[in-house]
Batch of 2 targets.
Target 1
Amino acid sequence: MHDSHAIRLAKTKLRDAYNNGNVNGVLSIFGEGFADMSAGLPSFYGAEARGVLKHRIKELFAHYDARLAVTIVSIRVQGPWAFDRGLHRLTLTPKSGGASTTTHTRYLEIWRKGADGKWKIAIFFDNMDVPPQMPPEEVLAELRRARATGARRRVRGRPPKIGQDAHRF
Amino acid sequence: MPERIEAELIARILGGDVEAFYQLVHPYERAVFLAALSLVRNDADAEEVTQEAILKAFKNLARFRQEAKFSTWLIQISINEAKMKLRKDRRHLYESMDEGQQNDEGDYIPKDFADWREIPSEALEQKELRKALTRALDSLPEKYRTVLILRDVQHLSITETAQALGISEANVKTRLCRARLQMRDALAPGFDGAWSRGRTYEKVRPF
Amino acid sequence: MAKRPIEIDCEEVWRQISNYLDDEVEPELRVNMASHFKDCAHCSAILDGARNVVKLVGDGRAFEIPASKSQRLYKKLNDHLAAR
């Protein structure tokens, strides 16, 4: 629980850094030698990744006011590693004036707890979020069938005859 | 019922005023019945259990220590009677174990996330909604169903619910959360009038 | 200066959503959850649905007992008293 909370705090720091145009604040969340696999961009690793990210964020904040909304869906911790996944909504308003643009991405972050006890992002992936949909009907039908079979197997023994008036509540 | 009046009634009953017992029990009839029903799951058995519970409460009234509320004590008796009936009929062996989707930490994952369009209370006048609520409640695992009935149907406090069931308050809260979420899932195919108009309900599943 | 809300994950929100409805969460958690609901349509939908469920089942009309059944509940007691 303590670790999950630390990661929540770190994401909060990332959010606030974006909202305050704080380049170093953003960078401080990423760990030594991190991998950057952001959507639509070439992948970068290690020291290069930090340099590229710093440059990108500096440019961004120079030209735009940023508003980052974070929705963490799930955090999983296993020893010194953790991952979280969720959604980002980034709204950019040109400093020179003009309409805002909003991008919706979904992300997966792999975190590592350093020797100093601080959690930092080791690998970052994201891609464009697509509005949710139900699976195709054939898939749903198969899931329903599988569920029905499973449920029948789990009821132990045969239910006794309770009586003809035993209508359910 | 205010505890002062309850105490007076109890004193009168113990003094021989039998009529006062009906007065004492009357506000809790539904609570006792629903608590029993949550366990035995059919009307006939629930009636029998309730009759037994009311009789037991009368016979043992002298033993009621007024630390808890009378309603909590009465409901406890009902629940114990229901459990005894289940054991006698050996029905507890056949309870379905279909508990809904759980993640690796045993948390309940709500089944779908579509926009909820409010079902107004006035719709309770419709038989279809009352039947849908009953069916939804029946689909819950017993331990969640009982907590929901005591807490949300009968409006017992967390403390009273914990006492009646002999579980911790933390346990009551966890089970109540799951009960409410599962009820929502069970009712979901029906809201926006879809269930009463025979329309297919449009679901959305984001994660 | 007001404390900025701390991010909370949907899974934690689902665990606390019942307590939130009953006003049984600590003030800080309350603020964090409220902020989450503002941005998360899915959790908002779950909250609205759960709130509606509580309102419906808590209504006296939801599980009414007819008067005839009500009277029958005293049968064993009445038999016992009559036999005394």
Note: Residues 160-169 of chain A have pLDDT under 50 and may be disordered.
Target 2
Amino acid sequence: MALTGGPATVERRLFLGLIGTPYASDLLTSAVRIAEEAVRQGHRVTVWTCGYATALTTAAVGPSAPRNLAAWDTRHPSPAALVRHLLAWADGELEWLVCRFCAEERGTTEQLPGVRVRPSYEFMLRADAADVSLVLGVK
Amino acid sequence: MTSYLLIESGSDREAGDPAGLRELAAGLSRRGHDVVLFLLQNAVLIGPAGPPVDELLRSGVQIWVDELSLAARAPGAASGPDGVRIAGMPELVRRLMTPGVRPVWH
């Protein structure tokens, strides 16, 4: 992922809902790609995770994904490391929020520094407050 | 006229109804709306379900295919059928953030 600056446009607010089982597809990759590009184009982004997507950024997740036995010398960042990097790069233009209801149900309330756990009703408030809302996932 | 961004993320072999989204895209376009169908993730492996690509194009749907998804699934496929545009996140996000565009993720 290339994280470099880009030309600013008229700032708008983008809400991305990330719902469901993120490892079943490239859903997380797509969400991160969209979020990164939106910040690069000068917009503010809110990512809201529900369901098992709340586990992506738990404090217990290490910096690297498990290594592939067929490519043992290659390391890839974990989802948590990716989000930590994205938050630092975005410098306040992106927030990563976790649904408290979903997190409590799954034992994922301990999150990375910078990731905030918010009450479930804020999903609609934040989606409604954004200029553009897009929910990625299974619901 | 309304502008739409329909993002398909699944292939014909997965759960969901990609054929239904393609029919929706064609129907909206025939009614005079401005429709972009963006194929992302496994959707780049577009199959026989629903209206075929040439029919979508004839109805006025703009078909954009995600470059990275295509490279991961079909190495060497640098281009699609005539009329299909290979695009990336900059194009997707510019369309997504354009005022008045209605996005749908599927």
Note: The longest strand of chain B covers residues 3-8.
